[in-house]
């Protein structure tokens, strides 16, 4: 299905005006697998002239795309969902090698994305405009009537991170195109081979030429040119806080949707079901080796709870299978690159040197970090505040619920938090005070279901994703006012 994306030398092309084309730059970026170092192919570092062409082409396509019926647009999205699902095995196998995610999770990312696309189409069909009578406002009159509909914004720049190259590309492309926009997809470099397959899925589904074009190349080289390009009308970015802040500082009068880093806290109260809490925390903190924005990234609890929780966590963590993502049941896989492993190792060293208690793990083999748990982490340690994006979890002991809330809120991040308790009043007391986008009661922090609003506050983001919210973010209301004489 995807052979036309690449030539015989495994050079991946870019989707431009409905065709897969090679760059004139002849500058290639080789994609090596973090699993075994094998070469998976090469992507092209596109030139600024080619970026101009790609954006200009989306503008031309926009003229007719925004005039197509919603029915036509959703049909293409349903087709894309089916094609994606039919090819889940092939895409997942490539993704597994490209981003070192275990095979089962790769398949479920693809299938979840097909569901997300179908739900996007369903939602778009049920989104109604409205008619507003003027007389509900003081001094207004029944002879004024506003017909409010939604209009596309133009060309959306979709920038995705490495950890969900299919899902976090499609969650931008689907809502953008159903709203009548055209899209430039800038995939993560490590993850671009998978994301280019997604572009081909839309192409095969019959998306008209130029509605989706791809731009490959390193963000550090081509990124600034893209985000400050005058042809871009909306930037939908998921990635690190550092790059998100950089984008916000460079963009001019262009609306932004930013999904950034997190330091999600799990607050465990004395009456919690500790067995259940431990299972949730281990799943939440260590799946895909902790490389999820919503991973549980710190535990806040009391001495009395910690003394019982730590042995439960230790037992479960030590059962986690470490290894090659192709193996059945593996959870801890090599991190995306050595630089990330160096960073996580630095956090582990700082915690050890600063007197935290290493409960389990703490070791490294190449870019694999063994699942690590620290007890007695204090607020002067880096691990209390920094996002590891790796399998290391700190437990911070607190003496009251209010202290837990205070430490949770002191973080620069505000993506999600969890509260584990049987007491619904306490759960709501804490949930209301936490400065985050979402609070999970008696569950790990997680994004789905994908139609829920998903947002971060403070350094965790700006704007709201989630199917209906994403469609709304990438469109604007237009009022036509009828004045009856
Ligand atoms: P990243 O380094 O910030 O990269 C994200 C994307 O931005 C990549 O496509 C990257 O391209 C591109 N980029 C880099 N510099 C750019 C520039 N100057 N202009 C435009 N684009 C640029 O993040 P990552 O390492 O892929 O992902 C991990 C981070 O993402 C973590 O912090 C995680 O918490 C966060 N994340 C957040 C969410 C959420 O929903 N809140 C979801 C997933 C991940 P290259 O790959 O070419 O560098
Ligand atoms: O990495 C960020 C993803 O949006 C997290 O999604 O909670 O379903 O793993 P997830």
Brief sketch in words of this structure:
The protein has helices at 48-65, 70-86, 88-99, 103-126, 167-178, 192-204, 219-227, 241-250, 274-286, 303-318, 338-353, 401-410, 424-433, 467-473; strands spanning 14-16, 19-21, 28-32, 39-44, 130-133, 144-152, 155-159, 182-186, 212-214, 234-238, 256-259, 264-268, 296-301, 321-322, 330-332, 357-360, 364-365, 368-369, 372-375, 392-397, 413-414, 416-420, 438-441, 457-458, 461-462, 475-483. The chain has 485 residues and is an alpha/beta fold. Glyceraldehyde-3-phosphate is lined by residues 163-164, 292-294, 446-448.
Describe this structure in words.
This protein is an alpha/beta fold and 485 residues long. The chain folds into two domains: 3-260 and 461-479, Aldehyde Dehydrogenase, Chain A, domain 1 (3-Layer(aba) Sandwich), CATH 3.40.605.10; 264-458, Aldehyde Dehydrogenase, Chain A, domain 2 (3-Layer(aba) Sandwich), CATH 3.40.309.10. The protein has helices spanning 48-65, 70-86, 88-99, 103-126, 167-178, 192-204, 219-227, 241-250, 274-286, 303-318, 338-353, 401-410, 424-433, 467-473; strands at residues 14-16, 19-21, 28-32, 39-44, 130-133, 144-152, 155-159, 182-186, 212-214, 234-238, 256-259, 264-268, 296-301, 321-322, 330-332, 357-360, 364-365, 368-369, 372-375, 392-397, 413-414, 416-420, 438-441, 457-458, 461-462, 475-483. The strands form eight sheets. The protein has a seven-stranded mixed beta sheet, with helices on both faces. Strands 9-8-7-10-11-25 form a six-stranded mixed beta sheet, sandwiched between helices. Strands 5-6-26 form a three-stranded antiparallel beta sheet. The termini are far apart. It binds NADP nicotinamide-adenine-dinucleotide phosphate and glyceraldehyde-3-phosphate. Residues 159-163, 168, 186, 188-189, 218-220, 223-224, 226-227, 238-240, 243, 246-247, 259-262, 293, 387, 389, 415, 456, 461 line the site of NADP nicotinamide-adenine-dinucleotide phosphate.
């Amino acid at each position: 299905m995807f052979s036309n994306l690449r030539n015989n030398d495994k050079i991946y092309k870019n989707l431009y005006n409905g065709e897969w084309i090679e760059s004139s730059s002849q500058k290639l970026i080789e994609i090596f697998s973090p699993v075994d170092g094998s070469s998976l192919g090469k992507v092209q570092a596109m030139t600024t002239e080619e970026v101009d062409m790609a954006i200009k082409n989306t503008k031309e396509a926009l003229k007719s795309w925004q005039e197509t019926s919603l029915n036509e647009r959703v049909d293409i999205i349903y087709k894309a969902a089916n094609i994606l699902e039919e090819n889940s095995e092939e895409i997942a196998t490539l993704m597994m090698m490209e981003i070192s995610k275990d095979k089962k999770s790769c398949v479920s990312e693809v299938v979840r994305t097909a569901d997300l696309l179908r739900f996007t189409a369903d939602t778009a069909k049920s989104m109604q405009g409205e008619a507003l009578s003027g007389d509900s406002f003081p001094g207004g009159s029944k002879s004024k009537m506003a017909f409010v509909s939604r209009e596309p914004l133009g060309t959306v720049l979709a920038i995705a991170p490495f950890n969900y190259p299919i899902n976090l590309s499609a969650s931008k492309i689907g809502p953008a195109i159903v709203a009548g926009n055209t899209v430039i997809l800038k995939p993560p470099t490590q993850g671009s081979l998978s994301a280019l397959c997604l572009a081909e899925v839309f192409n095969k589904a019959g998306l008209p030429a130029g509605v989706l074009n791809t731009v490959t190349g390193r963000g550090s080289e081509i990124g600034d040119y893209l985000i400050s390009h005058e042809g871009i009308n909306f930037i939908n970015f998921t990635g690190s806080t550092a790059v998100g802040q950089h984008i916000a500082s460079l963009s001019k009068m262009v609306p932004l949707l930013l999904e950034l880093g997190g330091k999600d806290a799990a607050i465990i109260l004395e009456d919690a079901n500790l067995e259940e809490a431990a299972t949730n925390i281990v799943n939440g903190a260590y799946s895909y080796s902790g490389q999820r924005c919503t991973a549980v990234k710190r535990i806040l609890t009391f001495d009395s709870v910690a003394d019982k929780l730590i042995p439960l966590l230790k037992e479960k963590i030590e059962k986690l299978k470490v290894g090659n993502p192709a193996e059945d049941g593996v959870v801890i896989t090599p991190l995306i690159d050595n630089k990330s492993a160096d960073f996580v190792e630095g956090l582990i060293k700082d915690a050890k040197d600063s007197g935290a208690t290493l409960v389990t793990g703490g070791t490294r083999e190449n870019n694999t970090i063994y699942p690590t748990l620290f007890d007695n982490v204090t607020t002067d340690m880096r691990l209390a505040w920094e996002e590891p994006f790796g399998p290391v979890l700190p437990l911070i002991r607190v003496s009251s619920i209010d202290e837990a809330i205070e430490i949770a809120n002191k973080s620069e991040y505000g993506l999600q938090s969890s509260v584990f308790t049987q007491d619904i009043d306490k759960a709501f007391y804490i949930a209301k005070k936490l400065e985050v986008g979402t609070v999970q009661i008696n569950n790990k922090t997680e994004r789905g279901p994908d139609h829920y609003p998903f947002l971060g506050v403070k350094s965790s983001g700006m704007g709201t994703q989630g199917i209906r919210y994403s469609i709304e973010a990438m469109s604007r209301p237009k009022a036509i006012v009828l004045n009856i004489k």
